[in-house]
Design goal:
Length: 271
């Protein structure tokens, strides 16, 4: 401290101590997002993720505090309440919406990521959380993140509840797309078709060979994979199996969600 120099105002948001419009903007942006957004911060890691483009955009919006949760909408004068519409237990911040709400938490628990790390459930650094998810199981994490946000919007904006089994099946469908490398697929806000497994007439499967043997002209129709996801999963499993034949006494574990969806006659989106 030099007592010979007069006192002056300094701006702590800039290393030079001088205020500028840019420095003020970055300071306000940091306060509104709750995330360190210092000059020079690069978000290029988001755009390098091997996930669909609109999932990347969701991550980018979250990191910038721009997801239109009820808390953000109330702060902008777009809503009279900041409370979560799904659980009515707390303000719907970005953290609450994507992780801490009981609805979101149930999804993370079901797919096994909730217990993957203490940091996963305690950190309040969004970039760290996204990077943790990317390091644990990137395709599964981001598929779940997308459908947690989609199901939230369906309930809050359209008053349509997407059942949890449907959300889980949709996560599985998106997971398959990401894992097969189709990362340039764009997922629209609403699916044009909803397809489910249709139970065949009684005795049809037992007598199908009899039908083929008769002097009839038969027409075989193609079934979309969303309408028979169990067969689709088994076919993919068989493609990587070198054995001539594999007999299952019980369904493989990865078939559980698809079987449950069939039993409940849940429709899946044809994207």
């Amino acid at each position: 401290m030099n007592e010979s120099l007069p006192d002056v105002w300094v701006w702590k948001g800039n290393i030079s101590g001088e205020y500028s419009v840019k420095a003020g903007y970055l300071w306000l942006k940091d306060r509104s997002s709750g995330h360190a957004n210092l000059p020079g911060t690069s978000w290029s890691w988001i755009w390098k993720l091997k996930i669909p483009e609109n999932v990347k955009f969701l991550v980018w919006l979250a990191c910038h505090g721009s997801l239109l949760t009820n808390a953000v909408r109330a702060r902008r004068g777009m809503s009279i309440s900041s409370t979560c519409s799904r659980c009515n237990e707390d303000d719907e911040t970005i953290w609450h919406c994507l992780r801490d709400c009981s609805e979101a938490k149930g999804i993370w628990i079901s797919i096994g990521l909730w217990a993957s790390s203490t940091d996963f459930v305690t950190t309040m650094d969004l970039e760290l959380w996204f990077r943790l998810g990317d390091s644990f199981n990137s395709p599964l994490f981001f598929a779940a993140l997308w459908w947690i946000w989609r199901s939230r919007n369906s309930f809050c904006m359209e008053q349509v509840i997407i059942p949890k089994p449907t959300v889980m099946s949709s996560i599985h469908s998106l997971l398959s797309v990401i894992r097969t490398g189709l990362t340039n697929v764009t997922f629209t806000a609403s699916a044009t078709r909803w397809i489910r497994w249709e139970k065949p007439p009684a005795g049809l499967l037992r007598h199908i060979y009899d039908f083929k043997a008769r002097p009839w002209e038969l027409l075989f129709k193609h079934t979309l994979r969303e309408g028979n996801s169990c067969a689709d999963l088994l076919a993919k499993r068989g493609a990587s199996n070198l054995d001539l034949m594999t007999e299952y006494l019980t369904p493989p574990p990865e078939l559980a969600t698809a079987l449950l969806a069939d039993c409940m006659e849940i429709a899946l989106p044809r994207i």
